[in-house]
């Protein structure tokens, strides 16, 4: 399959939006870390805060890797465009395929980080008494039973 110079260029808007989303997640986590830091030094519920800090530290590393693979995708597309321009299509195809693989890894890490973020919220809620964790079906049944 031969690709044109427009093929890698089509990914630029998608990569830019993904990188913006990753940056926003990073900024939200940074804010949460600062908040937890203050709580930790205020001696409020250290066992819950400790679990959250471990979760946040791992998630920050994941976001760093998500961003790194996103940047690698961007660079791969630019390099592929260069090789298309210089008519080295085989090299361009290989580099473009590698950049697509990097993009896939970045998105997979993003999905995993989203799953971990729900665990962080569960940690936050763990100190509240009487909370249930109903399944989706149980939740829907309760909604219909009320009506």
List key phrases describing it.
single chain, 147 residues, mainly alpha, 5 helices, 0% strand
Q: In short, what is this structure?
A:
By secondary structure, the protein is mainly alpha-helical.
Describe this protein's structure.
- This protein has 147 residues and is mainly alpha-helical.
- The chain has one domain.
- 84% of the residues lie in helices and 0% in strands.
- Helix 2 runs antiparallel to helix 3 and helix 3 packs antiparallel against helix 4 (89-125).
- It is elongated, with a radius of gyration of 22 Å.
- The model has no long low-confidence stretch (mean pLDDT 81).
Helix and strand arrangement:
Blueprint (H helix, E strand, L loop, with lengths): L5 H4 L1 H31 L4 H40 L3 H37 L10 H11 L1
